Amino acid sequence: MARLPEDDEPRWLRDYKSINVDIDGLHAFAGAVDTAVEQNFQPHTRPLMDSYAKGVQFGASSKSGDVQAARLKYHDCLVGATEQLTAYVNASKILVDAIRQVAQNYGSSDALSAAQAKEVEAALGNAVVSAQQAQAAADAAAAQRQAQAHHGSARAI
């Protein structure tokens, strides 16, 4: 079904075709992502994160500057890996929540027929903004921790 062009719409979008949304498919996709994260990904990340939380397990008594530099770099890698695992889980949850929200908003035939592509894009766009804000906060916290770690003693590692 072709859409009527809107006055403020860019020219390249004027021949844009409507998208048919399968609400049941959205629910199924959200469930599949949720299940994959909870049953496949998280069970493997917990042991890794527990291991990483123990910190650097080598060279604590070494006086070598190279060993201490390696300890610091390894510590940064452990922290970074832990933060990335957490961010992946959080981003997956944000995606699932956004998909479920879209499905809920347009679950009835009346709402679906009234839905505009812009509204769906806005709902997903809000999820992206939430994910970006969460990642920016995590990145800022990581940078602050890293700066503190580099200014602290090697014993803090």
Textual characterization of the structure:
The protein is mainly α and about 160 residues long. It has one domain (about 20-55, about 65-100, about 115-155). Helices cover about 70% and strands about 0% of the residues. It has four helices and no strands. The chain has helices spanning about 25-55, 65-105, 110-115, 115-150. α1 (about 25-55) runs antiparallel to α2 and α2 runs antiparallel to α4 (about 115-150). The chain is elongated. The model has no long low-confidence stretch (mean pLDDT about 80).
Number of domains: 1
- Summarize the biggest pleated sheet: none
The computed structural class is mainly alpha
How far apart the termini lie comes to: 61 Å
Average pLDDT reading: 82
Short description:
The chain is mainly alpha-helical. It contains four helices and no strands.
Topology, element by element:
Layout: H1 23-53, H2 65-105, H3 109-114, H4 117-151
Helix pairs in contact: 1-2, 2-4
